[in-house]
Specification:
It is a single chain. The chain is an all-alpha fold. Helix content is about 75%, strand content about 0%. The chain is elongated.
């Protein structure tokens, strides 16, 4: 089994009660404090146990802080790059 297969299989293992794929689908809601207490606790537990998802969450947080600190809206090019980045993260989580 190669590393890619191992990473793919690992995404289906539960960490903190949920899989990486489940977390990827609701990560943005979690970071925006839009989940109920139980779901938020499960995501938090998963992020504590899963390095990959934890890094994804940290990337989202950094982007959110950077965008919030801007005095002017991002350019269309910046929005496109960010959209591509997020789309790539989501598609990785769905494989």
């Amino acid at each position: 089994m190669n590393l890619t297969s191992m990473v793919h299989l690992d995404m289906f293992r539960k960490k903190g009660g949920v899989t990486c794929i489940q977390v990827a689908r609701i990560l943005q809601q979690y970071l925006d404090d839009q989940l109920d207490e139980g779901a938020a606790a499960q995501v938090a537990d998963h992020l504590d146990e899963c390095r990959r998802c934890g890094l994804d969450a940290e990337s989202y947080r950094e982007v959110k802080v950077a965008l919030a600190s801007r005095s002017r809206p991002p350019s269309p090019e910046q929005v496109e790059r960010l959209t591509s980045f997020v789309t790539g993260l989501i598609s990785e989580g769905n494989h």
